[in-house]
């Protein structure tokens, strides 16, 4: 009886040791050492309106002064991350928008600027990668 019990304990310990080795071995095959790269997005923030606006002004940063924004050739409302819209140093996480709708209505609001991955992962998915801003929806009151 003692022999059989000792054999079962030895087999159980052997299985446990093999499981630990497999887990540790699996970790070493896929090292997650990421380079110290901080990705920054310096492109514009696109404003998407629920109704066509007659006038648009925007800026980045707390207490900023909104500046006139004009549509580009593709009829997009793009706010660049540069002066006079941005007074550095500011990490763009929100945008202040003041706009008047073509059919009436006005809005003056601070809106969050969300990010999304570009889908590029030069150092692997676990290390992150470049990002861009999602379009910011603006709704008139």
How would you characterize this protein structure?
Helices cover 20% and strands 29% of the residues. By secondary structure, it is α+β, with helices and mostly antiparallel strands. It has two domains: 1-31; 45-138, Immunoglobulin-like. The chain has a four-stranded antiparallel β-sheet, with no helix packed on it. A three-stranded mixed β-sheet has the order 4-1-9, with no helix packed on it.
Total number of domains:
2
Structural class: alpha+beta
- Sheet of most strands: 4 strands, antiparallel
CATH architecture of the largest domain: Sandwich
Mean pLDDT comes to 81
Distance between the termini: 83 Å
Low-confidence stretches: 22-30
Relative helix content = 10-25%
β-strand number = 9
Rg for CA atoms? 27 Å
CATH class of the largest domain: Mainly Beta
How much strand content do the residues show?
A: 25-35%
Q: How are the strands of the biggest sheet laid out side by side?
A: 3-2-5-6
Order of helices and strands: HEEEEEEEEE
Shape: elongated
Layout of secondary structure:
Elements: H1 2-29, E1 45-49, E2 53-59, E3 67-68, E4 77-79, E5 94-101, E6 106-112, E7 115-117, E8 131-133, E9 136-138
Parallel strand pairs: 1-9
Antiparallel strand pairs: 1-4, 2-3, 2-5, 5-6, 7-8
Question: Quick recap of the structure?
Answer:
This protein is an alpha+beta fold and 141 residues long. The protein has one helix at residues 2-29; strands spanning 45-49, 53-59, 67-68, 77-79, 94-101, 106-112, 115-117, 131-133, 136-138. It contains one helix and nine strands; from the N terminus they run αβββββββββ.
